[in-house]
């Protein structure tokens, strides 16, 4: 295996973009209300400490996702936003959508919840893949 030279700033910025996208995606402006209704969360049941821990865990997950996606983008030799985005799309299909779809079916979860949750990761992976391809 050859040595990869990562742009650590690109990975960090990619993670921040994913994290901010999540904040907007699950905000009242977009999908907070339908998401909360489907999972059965009300304003009364949300706790500040669990929100903070969730935000920290979300950012760490975004860092890991960006780091792994950076590997695939570099291995592929992608250097344009379009090719990087296509890699993000392929990674989303194989490692997010396909396995979660089966889980949602087994667990009897609504398709609406699948669409909200995996839609976020679709946009995040496509943007991050493109960013990581052009910002080497």
Task: Give the averaged pLDDT, no decimals.
Answer: 93
The N- to C-terminal Cα distance equals: 19 Å
- The residue fraction in helices comes out at over 70%
The SSE order reads HHHHH
Number of strands: 0
Uncertain segments: none
Count of helices? 5
Structural class: mainly alpha
* Count of the domains: 1
Strand proportion: under 5%
| Shape descriptor | globular
Radius of gyration: 16 Å
Major sheet attributes:
none
Give your account of this protein's structure.
- The chain is built from five helices and no strands.
- The two termini are 19 Å apart.
- It is mostly helical.
- The mean pLDDT is 93.
- It has helices at residues 8-25, 32-39, 48-76, 81-107, 111-134.
- It has one domain.
Q: What distinguishing features does this structure have?
A:
single chain; mainly alpha
Q: What topology emerges from the helices and strands here?
A:
Elements: H1 8-25, H2 32-39, H3 48-76, H4 81-107, H5 111-134
Helix pairs in contact: 1-3, 1-5, 2-5, 3-5, 4-5
């Amino acid at each position: 295996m050859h040595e990869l030279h990562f742009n650590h700033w690109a990975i960090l910025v990619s993670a921040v973009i994913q994290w901010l996208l999540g904040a907007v995606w699950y905000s009242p402006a977009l999908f907070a209300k339908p998401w909360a209704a489907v999972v059965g969360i009300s304003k009364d049941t949300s706790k500040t400490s669990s929100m903070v821990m969730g935000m920290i865990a979300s950012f760490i997950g975004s860092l890991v996702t960006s780091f792994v996606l950076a590997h695939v983008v570099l291995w592929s030799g992608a250097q344009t936003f379009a090719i990087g985005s296509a890699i993000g799309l392929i990674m989303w299909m194989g490692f997010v959508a396909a396995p979660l779809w089966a889980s949602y079916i087994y667990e009897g979860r609504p398709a609406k919840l699948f669409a909200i949750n995996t839609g976020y990761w679709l946009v995040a992976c496509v943007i991050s893949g493109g960013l990581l391809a052009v910002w080497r």
